[in-house]
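Hello,

Our lab assistant flagged a job as stuck in the queue for most of the afternoon. It eventually completed. Since we weren't sure the result was trustworthy after the delay, we are filing this so someone can double-check. Below is the sequence as submitted and the structure that was eventually returned. Let us know if re-running is recommended.
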Amino acid sequence: MARLFDLGEMAHIESLSQDEGIPANYLAQILAELRNAGLITSKRGKKGGYSLSRNPKDISMRDVIEAIDGEVLTFTRNGAGFSATKVEGAFQQLKDNFEKSAEEITLDQLLPAEDPGMYYI
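-- returned structure --
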């Protein structure tokens, strides 16, 4: 969908499924989550499909992860035991770092490089 954004074209679930190697029925579930989160729009009909709701530069991996899984990382806090406070602090630091990294990666950065084609000497 990010590749098609500047072209104003919509992606079809069959081509997305094939291009990304994801079964269409599973992909439909993911697309529904992304639509519910406002990251994509969908249109029914012959000229329908899916498209990003905003520029790929404005959609981070954190946005996508939170749309599909909720919180980026979750962990259970027990609070018991000698090392509980230190372990919870370490997990919180991991979560903070992961969220920051996921926020910095945007969909436009995940696009494959343009194929330069064949060159003849």
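-- support follow-up --
The delay was a queue issue, not a problem with the job. The result is valid. DSSP finds five helices and two strands in the chain. The mean pLDDT is 89.
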